[in-house]
């Protein structure tokens, strides 16, 4: 099992803020809109240095998505920022009609996704957003794993023409991917090569998969760990290549099992390579209040759950 | 164009709206007839947009929030030369781009619309982009009175005033009817003018079928510096066809053969009265 040393832990939302600030310097067409969560989304630096390209719209998310769609008619590349909950469910019709169906170059940037939002509880902890977004035709859906990857993804999507949903979160997590990485939309990233099981993880669960890989190695299990930062388009080729070798699969995500990454992989396997799959995720439940660690434990979104899923799926081979 | 020339054009537009709705056996007849005079004045008098400059970043933008009245828009765009009028023979047909709501697959359409309450936020965003770039182009959107209860309109109304978007004009096709009944009975939005004024807009009322008044009002934009403009155009649903005027059933109704013939006859007779 490869080692993944890191020197600092950071929140993925700060990766977004850093990437957006970088875009402010390099791409004059990038504009940012925010629904009263500038600090939470780490958009302050962009706002400070590029005030003429920052638009505070207040707590009016539907309006924000509409404005963003309209700004593309004026040649801009709008990045909207609010919590994942208010970036998706609250404004689904605006995204569907005015952005996705209209093929607009809008980047919907969503923080505080999943239960790791923590103490504020279920109203704000969306676990359905990947499903809603991936169902929209032509929508690209990205869920990076750490600060560096979120920064790289933020920069990369500005160069991609079309609607994108970029999901990130609140908690501080190990920043273990390279600072100089090139983010390739739709390209799975093999973190560790292995032969016994394929673990496909996304977002915060990628680091948990790395931790699980170490535990599994101690048990003599050689796990292949793949970071699926792009939920859609799914890198089917990479997934099938791995599964052809390992013959069993575990998916891991901070999302409902229904509609998330595991759901996409299950469809792929059923169509092209029917092999055993176990899924780590939230099983048809809303969240609740607690610290991120407590909730990741309660909802079984951790290395222990991944190890158990691996043991279970390997027994089904 | 003189008001009389515009009036003559509108008769032709109305005939075409009915022709293609009758041919498709589908469409929003009443609303298309209520807003067609507004579209006529916009495209033939006010907007600096046509097929030759549609890709220009300096063109005026028109976004039709009441997307269901697409027949009125298509008929005007065809007349302006964005596409051959014969394309409209495929209206609402399988594999046609000329579907029941505006889509960017049709030349001349800025934005896919149809879900109500979307056009104003989009127009505010476009007007903001113009201000950002110090561009002189203007943004116009047409709303139905029935879609005003959509909350996104009021969110956008706030934003437009907040950013002092005097390059933005919203026009309400105030025909006082929506699919279920009188707008005042379904969800009363009166007084519209005072609401928008209190939101920071400059508001005017016009007769939405009076070409001279429409021209003069649009010529005076912006009504107040640093404020977005609202034109409440008082219109009649089904305007121009005696048996359709102010009749709810023509919201989505399609004339039968005899009704179609009568409508065309009435419009032909109207030419002599100009």
UniProtKB/TrEMBL annotation, chain A:
Cofactor annotation: thiamine diphosphate
Record-linked InterPro entries: PDH/Transketolase, THDP-binding, Transketo_C/PFOR_II, Transketolase-like_Pyr-bd, Transketolase_C
CDD domains linked: TPP_PYR_DXS_TK_like (cd07033)
Domain of life: Bacteria
Keywords: Thiamine pyrophosphate
One protein family per Pfam: Transket_pyr
SMART domains associated with the record: Transket_pyr
Transketolase-like pyrimidine-binding domain location: 10-175
Record-stated family: Belongs to the transketolase family.
The protein's name in its UniProt record: Transketolase family protein
UniProtKB/TrEMBL annotation, chain B:
Magnesium in keyword set: no
PROSITE patterns, A to Z: PROKAR_LIPOPROTEIN
Pfam families: Transketolase_N (PF00456)
Domain of life: Bacteria
InterPro entries documented for this protein: THDP-binding, Transketolase_N
Keyword entries, A-Z: Thiamine pyrophosphate
Transketolase N-terminal domain mapped to chain residues: 21-259
Cytoplasm found in the keyword field: no
Name of this protein: Transketolase
Cofactor requirements of the protein: thiamine diphosphate
Family: Belongs to the transketolase family.
